[in-house]
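Example record

Each entry pairs one chain with its bound ligand, zinc ion.
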Amino acid sequence: MRSAVELVNSAAAPDSLTSIDDLDGIFDRYGYTGRHDRSDAELHQVRAIRGELRDLLLGDPETTVALINSTLGRYSSVPRLVRHDAIDWHLHAVDDFAPLAHRMLVETAMAMIDVIRADETSRLTTCADDECDGIVLDLSRNRSRRYCSTTCGNRNAVAAYRARRAAD
Ligand SMILES: [Zn+2]
Ligand SMILES: [Zn+2]
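Structure tokens for the complex follow.
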């Protein structure tokens, strides 16, 4: 889920997913396994699914459910329980040799199943910064996260401070 949010947010200007190295970074940071071609074609595919990922994460529940079902219908194979690296038993719903972009879509759809079933879609919102349409994933207990990044948070804190000073 965090990786899907980062992928979607990477599309905001300046785009931060433009090279195979950028994709390597996401692959490593989020502990992806399986096929990773390190090719321009793969990078292009992953860049191209960011809109679909955004719709999966931010749709109203009915829309998200329809997208989850169509994504699973298109890409998933037989789900199986696996345990690898430091990650305990979890489901893989798609073959390890399927293209990375397809696995990212299916993995996000699988994560959204849990969100829908727990009725927690309100934890995914857009950034409170007027100029930013980044996604905020708020996993805090008191749901206090409003900005997609510390950059957006700081920019707004400074603006609020200036506005208070100007009002004095
Ligand atoms: Zn896994
Ligand atoms: Zn933001």
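The longest strand covers residues 87-92.
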